[in-house]
Amino acid sequence: MLKVIEDNKLLTKNQIGVLYGVASVACFAMMDACVKWLDMLPVGEVLFSRFFFGLIPILMLVPRSEFKTFYKTTRPKLHAFRAISGTLAIVALFIALREIPLADVVSLTFGGPIFVTLGSIFFLSEKVGIRRWSAVLIGFIGMLMIVKPAYDELNIYYLFPIVFCIFFACVALSIRSLSSTEPNYRIALYFSLLSMIVGLATLPFGWVMPSKFEFFLLIFTGIIGSYANILLTVSLRIAEASLVTPTKYLNLVFAILLGYFIWGEVPKILTLLGAGLIIISSIIIFIRESQLKKQVVSPRP
């Protein structure tokens, strides 16, 4: 199916790439909504299902010629760091999705590039100019605007999207290095396996037998989550990153619509204003890193 679309002569590669980017965002939005819907099931059970069923699309990417050796790597320590960071990020995200409005979660996760910039300063000793420092400050102001009502209400669950952003930065920095030698499916494989193990380890603490519909949602969450990452990777491969990356902000539109029509959530004015500042911050960081010819990293672990 993807090959057919890529071979389409009516659209340019950039147009096709943008379509893939929008499809990726829609898939991520559906996955987030499913995780929120499944709040009656333990987090560990949902986590295991997300990555167990998500392995199906990943394994389909492995070339036949490498099927016997696709898991072999010479960089196990960095894979472990990426997998641990990704697992902690996704657990924080799943908890946040259950406890706070969908639009608030999505808005705060847009702050990932802010923490990537800070991580590159402290761990990679990169020099950051006034534009990116200004972007970081703007982004933090936006995050504080979203979190302020939660601070007044002592809602600690608003900290979890920020925890997600911190570990997302670790994921992004590790992928920058891993991508130079490792194929995407191998990076995703070790992350998926560790997340499955962590989820399975919660079994003794009481999993719940899902209904038929919930079981369908568990399967759908796993498959749609992996396809979201695959679509994003393909979009960045065939189109200019400057065209694809802004499509991720459509996720806020999807989050507002899904939150309103399914759970009756109406985003606060501060959430929208804060999200606007975070988006501006992320765009400034992206433009500057594009000028410096840095690799664009997926906005989700």
Commentary on this structure:
The chain has one domain (14-59, 72-291). It is built from 13 helices and no strands. The protein has helices at 2-6, 13-37, 43-60, 76-99, 102-109, 112-124, 130-153, 159-178, 184-200, 212-238, 241-244, 250-263, 269-291. Helix 2 runs antiparallel to helix 10. The longest helix is centred in the C-terminal third of the chain and has 27 residues, at 212-238. The model has no long low-confidence stretch (mean pLDDT 89).
Shape: globular
- Which residue ranges are poorly predicted, with pLDDT under 50 across at least 5 consecutive positions? none
Largest sheet: none
SSE series: HHHHHHHHHHHHH
Give the terminus-to-terminus CA distance: 25 Å
Number of strands: 0
Count of folded domains: 1
Strand content bin:
under 5%
Look at the helices and sheets and give the structural class.
mainly alpha
